Amino acid sequence: MTFVIRRLRADEPALYRDIRLEALRLHPDAFGASFEDEAARPLAFFEQRLTGNVIFGGFRDQELLGTAGFMPETGAKRAHKAHFWGMYVRAAARGTGLARQLVEAVLDHAKDRAELVQLSVVSGNVPARRLYASLGFEPYGIEERSLKVAGRYLDEVHMVRRLV
Ligand SMILES: CC(C)(COP(=O)(O)OP(=O)(O)OC[C@H]1O[C@@H](n2cnc3c(N)ncnc32)[C@H](O)[C@@H]1OP(=O)(O)O)[C@@H](O)C(=O)NCCC(=O)NCCS
After folding, report:
1. Ligand 1 pocket check: which of 65, 94, 118, 122 to mutate, most ligand atoms within 8 Å of Cβ?
2. Which residues constitute the domain of residue 26?
3. How many domains does the chain have?
4. Could you give the C-alpha distances from 5 to 59, 61, 77, 124, 128, in angstroms and in order?
5. Residue 3: which of 68, 54, 50, 52 has the closest Cα?
6. With a 6 A CB cut-off, is 103 part of the ligand 1 pocket?
7. CA distance to 105, 111, 116, 122, per residue, from 164 (Å)
8. CATH code, 155
9. What region, left, alpha or beta, does residue 17 occupy, with left being phi > 0 and alpha being psi -120 to 50 degrees?
10. 42, 83, 104, 106: which has the fewest C-beta neighbours closer than 10 Å?
């Protein structure tokens, strides 16, 4: 299966909102953000996301099937760091290598802009943890009870991929 990987543009907020809300609705345990919070946001919120971050989309036949985001830190003491976030592949496209291509697109974008990329993943999310480990992310800490979802606590593993 071949995909086109490209940055989502600021004039595509509805496209982005649609896949982002699907991700949060179907996988409440996988993301720090909640469906209820983001579903209540206006379209301008998603437009701002697309300008304040670099969000890559994976397309097949014009259909957006997955996303991954890059957010650089700011300030003299933190600008060497960036965050990887918002990893999602729609169920119909899983197991095709799309997630791997999206992470690689973010890392390629990051290599001239940051010295390291950090991410957080819920400890029980084995597919995502394997994906990140296979692309060179290493765990550097575990945050117990990092998220509370419907009364249940979830631990998060913090991972880093060094670029230099
Ligand atoms: C995690 C997710 C992005 C993987 O997407 P995907 O397109 O199926 O992944 P890929 O086909 O690119 O697979 C890449 C690697 O991920 C890992 N992986 C993917 N699915 C897996 C599974 N079901 N079990 C174990 N490892 C898995 C493997 O290491 C795989 O490499 P391999 O095929 O060489 O073994 C997808 O399952 C998803 O969107 N899940 C819901 C949201 C989520 O958990 N996001 C991550 C938040 S941190």
Report:
1. 94
2. 4-162
3. 1
4. 6, 12, 32, 28, 19
5. 68
6. no
7. 17, 8, 7, 26
8. 3.40.630.30
9. alpha
10. 42
